Amino acid sequence: METKFADLHCHPHMRSFNWLHKPKKPEEKSKYNPWWLILPKFKAAEEGKRAAAYSQCDMAKVVNGNLRLVFASLYPMEKGWVTGSNNLVRDRILDLRKILGDNAFNDFLSDTLNLFLKPFFFKLGQDKGKQIALRDFAQAVFMKLPFSRINFFQSENYDYFYELNEERKYLAKGNGIVSETYIFIPWIKNIFVSKKKIRKEHPDEVDARGTYVIAKNGTHVKKIIEENKTAFVLSIEGSNVFNSHEPVANVLKKLEQVKDWEEPILFITFCHHFYNFLAGQAHSLPDVANILVDQKKGLDEGFTNTGWDVIRYLLSLDKDNNYKPQDLKRRILIDVKHMNAISRSEFYREIIVPCLEKGDKIPVLASHVAYSGRETLMDMITDMGNEKDGFLAEKNGHIFNAWNINVCDEDILTVFKTGGLIGINFDQRVLGLSKEDFNNEEKHAFCIWQNMKACMMAVLNSTENNLPPKENAVNMICIGTDFDGYIDPVNKYPTVLEFDQFRKDLIQVIANDPDKDKLLFNKYTPEDLVDKICFGNAYDFVVKNFI
Question: What percentage of the chain reaches a pLDDT higher than 90?
Fold first, then answer.
């Protein structure tokens, strides 16, 4: 029987949406749904490079990789990516849109600029107004998106909540329909590229036929998978999508609209890379990114008053933490990934623990994280100022990324006590891979396992009283890749198509682990545990908690 897979956090539609969505033009119905794939650079995928020029979990890979349970994250691009750092020197060039039009020569220019101008990008400045600066070219090269899309993100017309709804509508275009994949080739490349040749040379990467269905609840998920279809469960990344800079009444009105969606949201990643005026975000970007973007605002902040109103409304709680679904509608769970350690500490103290004590167990999610090697949130708060490239922690003989974007023992125990889930990220920097391990593919499954194992060992080694049975730690870990979130994946598993190889490698790693008996509880085989990690835990969670 073919192994099924689940991914707690990925963006299967994001690359095609950002290429095909044109806000000011009517959509071509035949070319506006997630079954259209943007022509990838196959070599970049083969080498496991940062996923911008190729997709990691588009519909061809979802179907051919047997990813049967997809937690599809809606993510309108944050303006912080494209508005730049205040420290940049302004240096404008001609507005090429006036000469070339919205998409003309875009891919040609990206390739040319990548070759000739890349060395200068980090010396030149940002744009404002209607002109394109070299930083726009840098963003287009990095993100592999049309210049017109980059400029739209920068414009006053870019509205997070409107884009959220457009993204949802885009996913709905293919919902429940038996479909096959099509290849979108930017027009300049049509001169040189043969679709027939691509399909012959890369069938698993571009050819597929199947059906995805956006799930309405856990029972619906079960039915979809039993019918041999792919279940999509919707989530949102970043509360900024509610235009959270606006007055709280406006924000709550948008939240109410989302709660009325026919295909509901299971959870929201409350914070993301840039400050949302609700709660402080964690430091997430490598040092080199500081040249182009500035995420300092919010890094040392906790919850605002508006933040408390919003998160309680999401969880259907009144100001006294009483569960009121009859008044506040269905509960949307909270994913603490990207919340900084200050905000997480406040969230647990003010909401999760008091609710748990009164019998309202709210599952906490950490959807695409790794282990930090730290024990407490206070450890992380104390060391926030030390988070530079190479800031690592050693525990049990292994090295971990110690930034507060990752989880510590205190986070893990909170997830465990609430019956939540931890999805392990496939980004090599987040996982704490050393430079030596980047290209050593024999170590990649081992490094991912060390992060999974460390989360389980935090439960097994805990001396806290009144914990659930510790063997339930095997139910807490799953895959949360962040595929198509512009991550730099471990080279051996750059896309969903490598999931089956990952499963085989992980079974072998666990079988050779000297601590395996502690983790299998004389009840499971390595195969049992890996199948829980790859599919069973996420499936069981959504069937139980998606109501």
Answer: 75
**What pLDDT does residue 333 have?**
99
Report the distance separating Cα 489 and Cα 496, nearest Å. Answer: 11
Q: Is the pTM of this model over 0.85?
A: yes
Distance CA(272)–CA(298), nearest Å, equals: 11
Quote the mean pLDDT of the chain: 89
With CA atoms as reference, report the closest residue to 282 among 368, 394, 161, 153.
Answer: 368
Q: What is the pLDDT of residue 442?
A: 93
Q: What pLDDT does 47 receive? A: 78
Q: Which residue has the higher pLDDT, 412 or 150?
A: 412
Share of the chain above pLDDT 70, in %: 87
Return d(Cα 281, Cα 9) in angstroms, integer. Answer: 18
**Phi and psi torsions of 365, nearest 5°:** -110, 140
Q: Which residues contact 2 (CB under 8 A, 6 or more apart)?
A: 66
Written as six digits, the tokens of 471 are 């063997």
Determine contact, residues 57/483, Cβ cutoff 8 Å: yes
Contacts of 242 (CB under 8 A, 6+ apart): 160, 161, 251, 254, 255, 258, 310
Q: Which of 360, 278, 356, 279 is nearest to 324 (CA)?
A: 360
Confidence of residue 372 (pLDDT cuts 50, 70, 90): very high
Q: If you classify domain 5-79+160-545 with CATH, what class do you get?
A: alpha beta
C-alpha span between 20 and 36 (Å, rounded): 9
DSSP letter for 76, please. Answer: P
CATH 3.20.20.140 domain locations along the chain: 5-79+160-545
Question: Residues of 246-266 as b/e, b for ≥16 C-beta within 10 angstroms?
Answer: eebeebbebbeebbeeebbbb
**Widest CA span in the chain:** 69
**CA dihedral sign, ordered 137, 143, 147, 152:** negative
Burial of 76 (0-12, 13-18, 19+ CB in 10 A): buried
Phi-psi group of 48: left, alpha or beta (phi > 0 → left; psi -120 to 50 → alpha; rest → beta): left
Q: Is the pLDDT of residue 384 over 70?
A: yes
